[in-house]
Amino acid sequence: DQQVKQNSPSLSVQEGRISILNCDYTNSMFDYFLWYKKYPAEGPTFLISISSIKDKNEDGRFTVFLNKSAKHLSLHIVPSQPGDSAVYFCAAKGGTGTASKLTFGTGTRLQVTL
Amino acid sequence: GAVVSQHPSRVICKSGTSVKIECRSLDFQATTMFWYRQFPKQSLMLMATSNEGSKATYEQGVEKDKFLINHASLTLSTLTVTSAHPEDSSFYICSARGQPNQPQHFGDGTRLSIL
Question: Residue B10: exposed, middle, or buried by beta-carbon count in 10 A (0-12, 13-18, 19+)?
Answer without folding.
Answer: exposed
